[in-house]
Specification:
Blueprint: E1 2-6, H1 10-22, E2 26-31, H2 34-44, E3 48-52, H3 62-73, E4 78-83, H4 88-95, E5 102-106, H5 113-124, E6 128-130, H6 132-142, H7 153-164, H8 168-175, H9 179-192, H10 203-216
Parallel strand pairs: 1-2, 1-3, 3-4, 4-5, 5-6
Pfam families: GerE, Response_reg
Keywords: DNA-binding, Phosphoprotein, Transcription, Transcription regulation
Protein name: DNA-binding response regulator
């Protein structure tokens, strides 16, 4: 896995690089500015970009804009965005481009090395890794959607964990239920969201997008 890291704090930037290299991952470049990131992405063509939300010059949304531009230039690029705290508007802007190969984590997750590495590998494999706190805030806004209101509290829990990028086994472990129960809840979610098996889409992805779409229209 080839990785480019973008973080304006030199200590955190080098700390991330050391952490990933210790895991035998190939950090091909690091950068501290938006222009530096885009140049590194063009030069090294990595599999994953790990990007801080706030970078020079304004330290507002440069990282999000870089992420959007990077995915526009290289549609197959996996992106894992790091933020010091939940920035809902930035999250929904990033998610507008789709959730495949995309992660949005709070920086505190980096200290939980196993969680961080799991999220990185999930994103690199084309999956989704959205911080639970981000999901919680997005879900609060999305519940105005009439179809989402059909879901039971447990089904909302399952859908929120699906949005984080967890598979059925991980969801069962998190909720302390059987995989069979998770499968039953997911079938019910599909039915209540009018996602038919005959549809030419991945219903799991479609359910997560339906959930996230409820936030984008209100962001």
């Amino acid at each position: 896995m080839r990785i480019v890291i973008a973080e304006d704090d030199p200590l955190l930037r080098e700390g991330l690089a050391l952490l990933l290299r210790a895991e035998q991952l190939d950090v091909v470049a690091t950068a501290g500015t938006p222009d530096g990131v885009l140049a590194a992405l063009d030069e090294h063509e990595p599999d994953v970009a790990v990007l801080d939300v706030r970078m020079p010059p304004s330290h507002t949304d440069e990282g999000i804009r870089v992420a959007v531009e990077a995915r526009r230039r290289r549609p197959g690029l996996a992106v894992l965005v790091l933020s010091a705290y939940v920035e809902r508007a930035f999250a929904t802007e990033l998610l507008t481009g789709g959730v495949t190969g995309l992660g949005y984590l709070l920086k505190e997750r980096v200290g939980r090395v196993e969680e961080f590495l799991d999220a990185l590998h999930r994103v690199a494999s084309g999956g989704t890794a959205i911080d639970p706190e981000v999901v919680a805030q997005l879900f609060t806004r999305s519940r105005q959607d009439s179809k989402l209101e059909r879901l039971s509290p447990r089904e909302r829990d399952v859908l929120a964990l699906m949005a984080e990028g967890l598979g059925n086994t991980a969801i069962a472990g998190r909720l302390v239920v059987t995989e069979g129960a998770v499968h039953k809840h997911i079938r019910s979610i599909f039915a209540k969201l009018d996602l038919s098996p005959a549809d030419q889409v991945d219903r799991r992805v479609a359910a997560v997008l339906r959930y996230l779409d409820g936030t984008r229209s209100r962001a």
